[in-house]
Amino acid sequence: MSALGFDAVGAVLIIPGGAAALLALLPGYRLSARLNVLAALATLLSSLTLLFARPQTGSYLLVDDTNIVFIVLTTFVGFTTSAFSASYIAHELEIGRLTPTYLRFYHSMYQVLMFAMNLALVSNSIGLMWVAIELATLTTVLMVGIYRTHEALEAAWKYFILGSVGIALALFGTILIYMAARPVVGEGLDAMLWTVLIERVGAFDPGLLDVAFVFLLLGYGTKVGLAPLHAWLPDAHAEGPTPISAVLSGLLLNVALYAVLRFKMLLAANAGALAPGPLMVIMGLFSLIFAAFMLYRRRDIKRLFAYSSVEHMGIITFAFGMGGPLANFAGLLHMTMHSLTKSAIFFTVGHIAQVKGTQRMSDIRGLTETHPLLGWGLVLGVVAIAGLPPLGIFMSEFLVVSSTFAREPVLAILLVVGLLIAFGALLLRLNGLAFGEPTGSLAPVKASYVPLFAHLAIVFCAGIYLPGPLVEWFQHVARLLG
Amino acid sequence: MPGLTLDVAHLLAGGLVLVSFTLLYQDRMFGVLNVFALHAFVVSLSVAWQAYIQVAPHLYITAAIALLFKGIVIPVVLRRIVVRLNIHRTVETVVGIGPTMLAGMGLVALSMALMLRVTATADPLAREDLTFALSVVLLGMLMMVTRRNAVSQVIGFMSIENGLIMAATGAKGMPLVVEISVAFSVLIAFIVIGIFLFRIRERFDTVDLQALHDFRGERE
Predict the structure, then answer these.
(1) Residue of A nearest to B215 (CA)
(2) What predicted TM-score, i.e. pTM, was given to this entire model?
(3) Which residue of B has its CA nearest to A139?
(4) Domain-by-domain residue ranges, chain A?
(5) Where are the domains of chain B?
(6) Half-sphere exposure of residue A399: CA atoms within 13 angstroms, side-chain side
(7) Do B122 and A156 touch (CB under 8 A)?
(8) How close B71 gets to chain A, by Cα (Å)?
(9) Cβ atoms within 10 A of the Cβ of B99, count?
(10) What's the complex ipTM?
(11) Which residues, numbered 111 to 130 in chain B, qualify as contacts with chain A under a Cβ-Cβ cut-off of 8 Å?
(12) Residue A163 · residue A137 · CB < 8 Å
C-alpha cells in the first residue's frame, strides 16, 4: 500500500519534472505538444491513484485529506489545458507570434509549472512550499513575457516585481513561523514540518504567529490576486498565451490560496492567536466589490475575465474567512467550480482571439452567428461564471450567501450587492460579444472543443446533482479546515 | 562572551540598515551599484558572524555566496549593462530624497514598534536581528517604489533578499531555507539581468520603466 502510494506522489512530481527536461531537448512542436498532453495525462492518472492509496507522511512530502482535493483539481485542469494548448499553439506559430525555439521553451516551462504547483501542494515543509511557489512564479513570469511585445514585457515585469515582493513577504512570514516553533519543537527540520507544527501549535507564542500570518496573508495574498495586491493579474492574463491565462486563473491562484489556508488552520489551532477569519473576510469582500466595479470598464476580453477571477478569488477567500463547515464547504465547491469554468472560458476566449485577430471586445460581435459552437460555449461559460442557475457556481454562491446570512446579515448584503454588480457587467459584455451583427473575421476555427465542453458539462452536472461520496468528502475537508 | 557576540551581531545588522538608507539617496547609477556591493559585503559579514557564533559551518557557504555573487559578480555585470545602455548619468526618482528618507525612518520605527513588541519572549539575538531584517526588507521595498529605473528596482529587490537572508540566518538552526533562498536569489538575478534587461534593451532602447508604463492599461 504505502509503497504504491509513495510511487504515486513521486510520479506526480517526477513525470512533470522529467517531461520538462525531455521537452526542452526535443525539436518539432507537434511531437512536443502531444508529449505535453501525455505527460499531463500521466500526472492526472497518478494523482487519481492517490485517492485510493495514501502514502506515508515523510519529512518532505505529505498527502492528506486537505491537499488531495487541490492535487486532483490541479492535475485535471493541467491535463485539459494541455489538450487545449495543443490545438491553440500551432496557430501562434503560423502567424509568427512564436518561433519554434520559443515553442520548445513554452512546452518545457508548462511542465515545470505543473511540477512546481504539485510540489507546493504536496510539500510537508513550509520552506519547501515557499520554494515551490517561488518557482511557479518565476516560470509564469517567463511565460507571460514569451510574446516579447511591449505589453507582454510590461506585464511580465509588473508581475515579476509584485510577485517577488509578495514572495519576499511570505518568506519573512515563514521565518517568523519557524521562530515561533523553535522554542517548542526545537531546532532543525521538524520546526518547519506542517504535521509537527499543527500538532504543537497550541504552545507557540501567539504574538509571533499573528505577525507571521499578516505577512503570509499579504505575501501569498498577492499571488491569490486579492485587491489591492492584484495589479499584476489582469496584465499577466491579458498578455501571456491563453493556455497560461487558463492555468493562472484556474490553478495558480488556488495553489497560493491553499498556502494561506494551511496557515489559517495553524492560527485557528492556537487559542491565543488572533482570529484569521476577519482579515480574510475583509480582503475577500473588498476584492469582490472592487473587481465587480472594474468589470464595467474593460475593453479587452482577457482582462475582463481576469478581473472576474479577482472577483471569484474574493468570494472564495471570503467563504474560507467566514469558516465553519458550511462556509468552508461552499468555498471548496466554489473554488472547484471556478477553476473549471474559468479555464473553460479562457479556452473559448483563446480561440475567439485567434480567429478574430484581436482581444478588443468592441471588435468582437455576434459570435453565436459566425461561430455557433464557440459563441454558445462562451455564452454557457459566462452564464455559469455569472452565477445563474442551474450551473455549479450558482449553487456554491448560494451556499456562501445563505451561510453568511445566518451569521452576519450585513456582510451577506454586501456580498450580494457585489455579486449582482458583477453579474450585470458580465451579462452586459456577453450581450455584445455573442449576439448582434457579426463583425470581424468569419474564418472557420480549428479548435478542439473537447476540453471546453468537458469542463462545462462537469459544471452543469454539479449544479444539478452532486454525487454523494463527493459531498461527504468535501464536508470532511470542510470540517478539517475549521 | 555573550555580550560581545551580541554587540557584533547588532553592529553588523545595524550597519546593514544604515547601508540600506544610503541606497535610498544615491542619485547616480554607479553610486547605487557601489553601495549595493557594500550592502552585500555587510550581509555576508553578518552571516559569517552568525555562522561563527552558532557554530554552523554551512552558513559560511551562504556568506561566501553573498560576497561573491551579490558583492562582486552582480555589481560588475550590472555596471556593464549600465554602461552599454548609457544610463549611468542619473537616476530618476519618483519622490524627492527628503520625503524618501523620512518615509524610510518611519518604516524603521514601524518595524521596531512591531517586532520588539511581539518578540518580547524570544531570545535577544534573534529578536533584534529580526527587527533589523524587517527594516532592511521595508527599506528595500521603499527603494523599489521610489525608483523608475529597472536596474535600481532590481537592486532594491536584491536588498530585500539580503534582509531576508539576515533574518533566516538569525533564526538559529533554520533548515534548508538559507541555501535555497540564496540559490534562488542568484537565479532571480540571472533571470532579471539575462532576460528582462536584454529584451527591454532590444525593444525599447531604454530601461526606464516610465517608457514601459506608456504601453500599459487598456488599449484604446
Answers:
(1) A151
(2) 0.90
(3) B191
(4) 275-482
(5) 2-213
(6) 22
(7) no
(8) 20
(9) 11
(10) 0.86
(11) 114-115, 117-122, 126, 130
(12) yes
